[in-house]
Fold this sequence. Notes:
Elements: H1 9-39, H2 56-72, H3 78-96, H4 108-130, H5 142-153, H6 170-194, H7 200-203, H8 208-227, H9 245-251
Amino acid sequence: xxxxxxxxxxxxxxxxxxxxxxxxxxxxxxxxxxxxxxxxxxxxxxxxxxxxxxxxxxxxxxxxxxxxxxxxxxxxxxxxxxxxxxxxxxxxxxxxxxxxxxxxxxxxxxxxxxxxxxxxxxxxxxxxxxxxxxxxxxxxxxxxxxxxxxxxxxxxxxxxxxxxxxxxxxxxxxxxxxxxxxxxxxxxxxxxxxxxxxxxxxxxxxxxxxxxxxxxxxxxxxxxxxxxxxxxxxxxxxxxxxxxxxxxxxxxxxxxxx
Length: 258
């Protein structure tokens, strides 16, 4: 395919699904924080802590919708589908296994919550790196996929079939954004763990855990907005050289593209 074709309504819906995932992830921390402020409630120390605030239903609903979107997402290849399925299932797990609280019973549920949260955030970072794939990477096996994602974390990328990709191309810019989002997610996770060891005087300055979790979640959402062509979509003129996201989706029967 060497020209940009008019996308079908099914392809448009598929791209809109990506944008929806991105919007939910970006707006979730902001909406939770704004909600408790408007309602005059105490500000929880973490995103998960909003389960015990008046915004509980918003948190649970958003996580469940996000999880279902990820589970039903038809990935670029088997690795892509597995990662999104794991992330979707873990997001639903976070919703139904809330963080520890003296008011919640049984107590063991709170011990399971960090496992789901850690798996979800790790999978989100892998998804951002998976977005850097090209048509040449499909069917390469999970070992090759992991190697490629490791290189993407170092801002090194494979090239599509047919030759080198220009350093200033929009795909290359998007790849760098995906890698940057993956780093932001991982940094957010590491800082969230480190703050547990900070002195109480520092931890009381602001809800650090919330901000670090928000950094990870919103970075994940931003990567999906880019993937959904809400940002940095290929120009129509570039389709003669490299198929756009929409064109590849149409050609591949609505699967994720490079």
